[in-house]
Amino acid sequence: MRKDLDYYLNQIQKLRVSPGPGGIKAPYQPLLLLSLIETIEQGLVLKNEFPLSPELIAIFIKYRTKLSSTYYQADIAQPFYHMSKKSDSFWHLTPKPGHEEVLASGGPLNKLNKLRDNILYGYFDEELFELLLSPISRNALISKLLDTWFPDKIDQIRSLLQVHEFEQLQFKLKEKGGAIYTTDQVDDLEHAVRDAAFRKNLISLYDHRCAFCHVRIVSYNSQNIVDGAHIKPFSKFRDNRYTNGLALCKNHHWAFDRGWFGIDNQYRITIPHDRLTEESAIESRSMQDFNGEQIVLPEQKDFYPSQEALTWHRQAWKIAS
Ligand SMILES: [Zn+2]
Predict the structure, then answer these.
(1) Ligand 1 centroid to residue 248 C-alpha, Å
(2) I need a surface site. Which of 147, 163, 239, 279 has the fewest CB within 10 A?
(3) Same domain, 186 and 243
């Protein structure tokens, strides 16, 4: 059978839905498909590869909560995995290198952490992906999806399609300087999105540079070597304000989390002299060379790391200032 637009319009009608509470059918697969299409619509997709990105999760949550908070409760991992299981499915999963067997064994990967550990990304049939890139056929597919699965919510979804959920969350958080959460406030899925928004904002406040060594490397697909790091650990303090954060490269993030260095009240790097034995790589400075140097700071003072957090970190690791 030719895999053309008609073929996929027909496939959309055959998506599986699981019965929710009270026997109501919960269309998680249509909801996921809609979310995936929206990432294309938003220009977030460069090629036929769809990792479980915070942007995708944010879109899925947007629909799940705004369409019906009562029965759209599934984790995005369930449809992300199950949609690939149908024999003639147009959705497929690529395992991470070394994790091929986990996928081949058919063990269900229907939990977010399991999927993240084992799956690199999902992808569409090439034919379908081509159709989704073209605005005209994409619109035909969206219309079929809405007519079939959400006939009473078409207008609502059309207007939700215009809302860039992740960008909005990032913007809102930045306006507020971040947020502090109580443990029961957000579920795991929402936490993953909020955490990603916090880290992305934080990194851009530091111009994608490591506050310690100033390194800045950004790849073509916006991955970068710098992390958004917490000064006081999130697990204990639930503090996602930018004043509790620093942008640090992988090495210096790891070192900071183990108290290899602290930052004093003048924002200078403090390295206890008796803790490290090091031999630096060719042409690069040793860590201890940075002792006493000023860290990179955000442009706006409001976003500087707080003295309270930095003092907490020095005391926790017994670093004299
Ligand atoms: Zn660094």
Answers:
(1) 6
(2) 279
(3) yes
